[in-house]
Design brief:
Strand content: 15-25%
Largest sheet: 5 strands, antiparallel
Order of helices and strands: HEEHHHHEEEHEEHHHEEEHHEHEEHEE
Number of strands: 15
């Protein structure tokens, strides 16, 4: 007797299973990751094409031909004895935890350098679910990302080195208005540290204590920042004055820029210290003003010289006729006294004109010996004739005949101007004193004028009391 059993469904199921397995292998073969499938004991039961090609290209032929049936946990345990021992131990523990179900997923990044290139991979272990329990191991090449990260780290280091090493003050702040960095040049120039200025809220009133000036700087600053953000144009540098920690003020040319890349969200502020340049400009302007003033004085000297020359001619006539009048009026004492005063005043006017002429000609002024006490007496006579009745005038000539060498007309003019100023300062009346004394300077008492030799000097003293 022959028994026939219909196994059509079984055959169809086997063919469907083969097709399913072939499809699954085709799927994992199409992936760029190096993939291995482990059973519950950690034995490799399937690998994809990328896994086999990696083993072939890197001299690990056991991975390209004999991976199936290999104990992957044993391979990793053996690797823990070499350079990457810590990573290998972590992989063994991670795979076992995923296989046992105590961990949902495991991942690790590790280097796997070849002699001719640097490489990094990301290993991911996920559970294999279904009828056949186990785990799926995938190794994804992340070399491009790691190289980019290293390049970025080096770029950041270079940028920080530049900011740190430059002698130009620089600062960084973020979108939260926090000051994240102040370079050494900033600290040295302004004296502030990051602890002094943690935020921009502290920076504005500290650097610009005057509210009105601060508001003007802030308005201009934020306006330029917004303009640069909207148009993409560079920040227009602006000049401002910053108060330092020691109370001094620095003039700076301030600029700013929004950073990109790893510094996205950071703003770089550059403060060029132009204090010395501004001071030099101010000195230059002062010198130019002095030059202009000297040119004006030179022109005035030429004009005064011409006027003085003509006036001197008139004085010669006045003095000449005064001398003749003195000769003709010897019998009249009052007339003689009046004419003598005219001659004395004319002589002073002549000396004054000579000073103007000397100034305009840049000649050396004449130096002659004269007595200070007699000059003081002449000043008293001149002042008494014009002194208001509500002012008392006292002159103390001093003792002895003090003779000095100089220009008596200049000293006379100084004393008259001194007394005139004192009289004008007492419109309600008062007391005016003018005296002659001596003073000396030695090792203990320094002269008030630099380079003045030590010794004794005559001293005119004046005082007024309202």
């Amino acid at each position: 007797m022959v028994t026939l059993i219909d196994i059509t469904e079984q055959k169809l199921a086997e063919e469907a299973l083969k097709k399913s397995e072939a499809f699954n292998l085709a799927v994992i073969d199409s992936l760029a990751e190096h993939i291995a499938v482990l059973d519950r004991q950690g034995i490799i039961i399937a690998v994809n094409r990328a896994w086999r090609e990696f083993g072939k290209n890197n001299g690990a032929h056991y991975l390209s031909h004999n991976s199936i049936g290999m104990d992957y946990l044993a391979v990793c345990s053996n690797a823990s004895k070499f350079a990457m021992g810590e990573e290998a131990n972590a992989v063994v523990i991670g795979i076992r935890e995923v296989l046992s179900g105590t961990r949902a997923e495991f991942g690790i990044e590790y280097p796997c350098h070849a002699p001719h290139e640097q490489r990094w991979f990301h290993m991911r272990v996920t559970p294999l679910k279904g009828e056949r329990l186990g785990a799926v191991i995938s190794h994804f090449n992340i070399t491009a990302r790691k190289l980019a990260e290293e390049a970025l780290i080096k770029s950041e280091a270079r940028s920080h080195a530049i900011i740190r090493g430059t002698d130009v003050p620089m600062a960084l702040n973020n979108e939260q208005q926090e000051i994240t960095y102040l370079n050494p040049a900033f600290v040295q120039t302004f004296g502030y540290t990051k602890q002094d200025l943690p935020t921009l809220a502290q920076w504005w009133p500290t650097a610009y204590p005057d509210p009105q000036y601060r508001n003007g700087v802030m308005d201009s600053w934020f306006s330029e920042m917004e303009k640069a953000r909207q148009t993409g144009a560079p920040f227009t540098p602006m000049e401002c004055s910053i108060r330092c920690k020691d109370g001094t003020v620095k003039t700076v040319m301030a600029s700013a820029a929004s950073l990109v890349g790893a510094f996205t969200g950071e703003h770089l502020v550059v403060l060029f210290d132009i204090t010395k340049r501004k001071q030099a400009e101010e000195v230059k302007q002062a010198l130019e003003k002095q030059l202009f003033q000297s040119q004006k004085m030179e022109a005035l000297g030429v004009l005064a010289g011409g006027i003085a020359h003509d006036f001197n001619n008139l004085l010669m006539s006045i003095l000449g006729y005064s001398d003749l009048a003195l000769e003709w009026s010897k019998s009249d004492a009052r007339t003689v006294q009046a004419l003598q005063h005219i001659v004395e005043a004319g002589g002073r006017a002549r000396d004054l004109v000579k000073q103007i002429l000397d100034f305009s000609r840049r000649d050396n002024q004449e130096q002659k010996p004269f007595r200070l006490d007699l000059l003081l007496t002449e000043v008293r006579g001149l002042i008494n004739r014009t002194l208001p009745k509500n002012i008392a005038f006292q002159v103390v000539p001093g003792n002895g005949k003090r003779v000095v060498s100089g220009n008596s007309s200049q000293i006379h003019q100084v004393l008259v101007n001194l007394c005139t100023n004192a009289i004008h300062a007492m419109p309600a009346g008062g007391q005016l004193d003018l005296s002659l004394d001596t003073c000396s300077f030695d090792a203990e008492k320094s002269p008030p004028v630099p380079l003045l030799p030590k010794g004794g000097y005559p001293l005119y003293a004046s005082g007024s009391k309202i």
